[in-house]
Amino acid sequence: MAPVSFHHDNNVCKVVLTCFKSMTWVMETANSTPASKVAVINLKLEDYRKNPPGVEEIQFRLTRLTLEPMLRSMAYISQQLSVPANRVAVINLKLQDTKTSSGETEVKFQVSRETLGSMLKSMAYIREQL
């Protein structure tokens, strides 16, 4: 998937230069009780801001409590992508990050309807494991 431009209300054209490439995950098992299970998610994003394009890797942790709102948002975005005019969506994740002064990192990337559908299936399976 290559970057696609989109328009905001003020007709300013923007291009998201990072596109979803793949997602893997593992369950964190050390000292894990059912109430404290954690899934470690690894995203690979194709970064078109670099020349030549490179891969950016993002890792974050999800509990059942943090996964639920993410699944609801992704399902809503998937519904929006069912409209033929909507080819891609921009996902904007705000992740806790102890290495930044604000305590969070923002990650934006594009997904197609098919890609988002695959992500939703994986996230639903992760929810079952949590």
Automatic annotation (TrEMBL):
Cite the InterPro entries for this sequence. Answer: COMMD9
Its protein name is Uncharacterized protein
